[in-house]
Specification:
It is a single chain. The chain has helices at residues 11-53, 58-90; strands at 92-93, 96-97. The chain is mainly alpha-helical. The protein has one domain. The chain has a two-stranded antiparallel sheet. Helix 1 (11-53) runs antiparallel to helix 2 (58-90).
């Protein structure tokens, strides 16, 4: 295995890699929007029901549902971004695939 610079690729291979990133990114984006919306709606419903049954105001319900839904949306977005990165690292782009390479640190002579 050897490192390949993107500038060294021909147009077909470059487009194949770009397309692989694009369609996976769009898929994860749609999944993130759906997951955030569904989790936010579920949280909002449950929080709204509990607050309403305990005599809370509409403003309290909206505030807590908004904050909780936003937090759940952020968490699901971070999780799905992790899935996206893992997906890219497992994917093949024609004859290429992404790899994480550990950078070798330079050895410095011991100072006297």
């Amino acid at each position: 295995m050897h490192e390949v610079k993107i500038k060294e690729l021909n147009l077909k291979d470059t487009l194949r890699i770009l397309w692989g990133f694009l369609w996976r990114g769009l898929t994860i984006s749609v999944a993130s929007v759906l997951a955030g919306g569904i989790l936010g709606a579920i949280f909002g419903f449950i929080a709204g029901l509990i607050i309403a049954l305990s005599g809370g105001s509409k403003e309290t319900i909206e505030s807590i549902a908004g904050i909780g839904g936003g937090v759940l949306g952020l968490i699901s977005g971070i999780f799905l971004f992790y899935i996206y990165i893992c997906w890219l690292l497992k994917a093949k782009f024609g004859k290429y695939k992404l790899a994480l390479l550990e950078e070798q640190q330079e050895q410095h002579p011991a100072s006297v």
